[in-house]
């Protein structure tokens, strides 16, 4: 898999404008992207939408910024070699649907590896003013993923120096049990 870091709207992304990085997750609520778009509009910032595939690892990055990745599981590449491209296209179409109404300059980056590390490295690379991510979503799969790898928001809050905006995706009431305090 290779990705092209070229902006979707390069004519509106001059280098002197601030940059906001937004971390995307599969099946994530569009509230995260919408929040990032509103911030970008208010701050007159360029938005870099980053999706990190934790099932892939980066092999090399070309001089042009193109990233070459391989699956962590070599058998996974044999399952559907075109699935990544189709997923990127679907994500780009969804981002166009959500972001174009906000009138902000944006681009999409597909990364590979540990999400918090990759998002932090991208933020360094583009000298981002801030990072936007969502909270975890309820569900067994998300609970297991977070148990194994930790919350992306928590890792970013402790491992990088930029302001972090965390968008609540499934908040509970002040008197309700917190998701990590349940016996599920």
Structure, explained:
The chain is about 35% helix and about 25% strand. Helix 1 (about 30-45) links the parallel strand 2 and strand 3. The protein has helices at about 30-45, 75-80, 85-100, 115-125, 140-150, 150-160, and strands at about 1-5, 20-25, 45-55, 55-60, 65-70, 105-110, 130-135, 165. The protein is globular and about 50 Å long. Helix 4 (about 115-125) packs across helix 6 (about 150-160). A five-stranded parallel β-sheet has the order 6-3-2-7-8, sandwiched between helices. The protein has a three-stranded antiparallel β-sheet with strand order 1-5-4, with no helix packed on it. With about 180 residues, it is an alpha/beta fold.
Number of helices: 6
Average pLDDT, rounded to a whole number, is 78
**Biggest beta sheet attributes:** 5 strands, parallel
Given the C-alpha coordinates, what overall shape results? globular
Strands, count: 8
Strand residue percentage: 15-25%
- What structural class is derived from the secondary structure elements? alpha/beta
Q: What is the H/E string? A: EEHEEEHHEHEHHE
Unreliable stretches: 9-13
Q: Which oligomeric form is depicted?
A: single chain
Distance between the termini: 37 Å
Strand order of the largest sheet: 6-3-2-7-8
Rg, rounded, reads: 17 Å
Estimated helix fraction: 25-40%
């Amino acid at each position: 898999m290779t990705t092209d870091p070229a902006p979707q709207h390069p004519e509106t992304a001059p280098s002197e404008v601030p940059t906001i990085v937004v971390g995307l997750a599969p099946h994530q609520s569009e509230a995260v992207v919408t929040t990032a778009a509103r911030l970008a509009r208010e701050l007159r910032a360029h938005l870099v939408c980053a999706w990190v595939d934790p099932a892939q690892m980066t092999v090399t990055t070309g001089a042009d910024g193109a990233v070459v990745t391989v699956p962590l599981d070599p058998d996974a590449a044999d399952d559907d070699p075109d699935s990544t491209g189709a997923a990127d296209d679907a994500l780009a179409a969804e981002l166009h649907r959500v972001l174009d109404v906000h009138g902000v300059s944006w681009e999409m980056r597909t990364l590979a590896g540990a999400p918090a590390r990759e998002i932090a490295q991208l933020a360094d690379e583009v000298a981002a003013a801030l990072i936007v991510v969502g909270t975890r979503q309820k569900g067994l799969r998300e609970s297991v993923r977070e148990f194994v790898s930790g919350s992306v928001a928590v890792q970013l809050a402790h491992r990088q120096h930029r302001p972090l905006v965390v968008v609540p995706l499934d908040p509970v009431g002040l008197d309700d049990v917190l998701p990590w305090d349940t016996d599920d």
